[in-house]
Every structure is written in structure tokens, then in C-alpha cells.
Amino acid sequence: MQVMACETCHIPEVIGPAQQSIDWTALRADGSPLSEFRGIEGDPTLPTSLITGYEPVFLQRQNGGG
């Protein structure tokens, strides 16, 4: 517990969108990759999109250094 950040337990949900994936195997007409976001319903560039937030995943590792 000494090396774990306080935010790991004390911020159980992020209220905002985050980029989930970038797919370079399928390109748009302008040559840009497909992007997916989590925590938002609709286009993240539009102010009318509904922000739902998301719960981050906590992954345990045996090698704490990376």
C-alpha cells in the first residue's frame, strides 16, 4: 500500500471522456485512424454529446517497476 497512489481507491469514477483506442487498420476517407472514446455517448467534439464517465480498471502486477 505504500507505493499505491491515493487516487487508486479514492477516485472510483472519472467524470469525463477518454480515448479508448486508435485503430490504424481501418482508416477514414481523410487518412486518419478510427478512434473510440469511453465515457461519452456521441461525438466527443460536439457539445450536445452526453458525458457518462467511466470506472477505471486497476490492474495488479507482480513487477511493480513496470
Walkthrough of the structure:
The mean pLDDT is 84. A hairpin with a 5-residue loop joins strand 1 and strand 2. By secondary structure, the chain is mainly beta. The protein has one helix and four strands, in the order αββββ. A two-stranded antiparallel ribbon has the order 1-2. A two-stranded antiparallel sheet has the order 3-4.
Topology:
Blueprint lengths: L6 H4 L7 E10 L5 E6 L1 E2 L8 E2 L15
Antiparallel strand pairs: 1-2, 3-4
Low-confidence runs: none
State the separation between the terminal residues, measured CA to CA. Answer: 17 Å
- Counting helices, strands and paired strands, the structural category is mainly beta
Report the principal-axis shape: flat
Radius of gyration: 16 Å
Q: Mean pLDDT across all residues, rounded?
A: 84
Short description:
With 66 residues, this protein is mainly beta. Helices cover 6% and strands 30% of the residues.
Which key terms come to mind for this protein?
flat; 66 residues; two-stranded antiparallel sheet; mainly beta; single chain
